[in-house]
Amino acid sequence: MCLGIPGRIIEIYDNGLTRMGKVDFNGIVKEVCLAYLPELQVGDYTIVHVGFAITRLDEESAHETLALFQSLGVLEEELQPNTEDRHEIS
User: Fold this and answer.
1) Angle at the Cα of 87 from the Cα atoms of 61 and 66, rounded to 5 degrees
2) What percent of the chain has pLDDT over 70?
3) Smallest Cα–Cα separation from 3: which of 34, 44, 48, 36?
4) Which of 32, 45, 51, 67 has its CA 20 to 30 A from that of 13?
């Protein structure tokens, strides 16, 4: 990922080395390093850049940014989804 993409944290775990999480980017789920933001919790929104959560943001801002990226046609390209990365989130 080159853009800072907002996503919602759906799972947090320790991989034995650092704090990690699964982040939902509008239906595409990726593993993300959460080490820089230890205060993040499941349900929080974060900006992710090159696999690292770099800031927390509110839900409204996250949705606005995702809509903008989607309207520009860059969201799917930036996230480079694989079929095994797609999950149904309700």
Assistant:
1) 20
2) 80
3) 48
4) 67
Instruction: Give the Cα separation of 40 and 37 in Å (integer).
Output: 6
* Residues 60/78, Cβ–Cβ less than 8 Å: no
| Structural domain span for residue 22 | 5-89
Domain CATH number, residue 61: 2.30.30.140
Cβ–Cβ under 8 Å, residues 53 and 34: yes
Kindly report, residue by residue over 44-82, the tens digit of the pLDDT: 999 998 899 999 999 999 989 888 888 888 776 666 655
Percent of residues in the chain assigned helix, strand, coil, to nearest 5: 25, 40, 40
pTM of the model: 0.77
Distances in Å between the Cα of 83 and the Cα atoms of 33, 52, 76 are 21, 22, 12
How many structural domains comprise the chain?
A: 1
Average pLDDT, the chain: 85
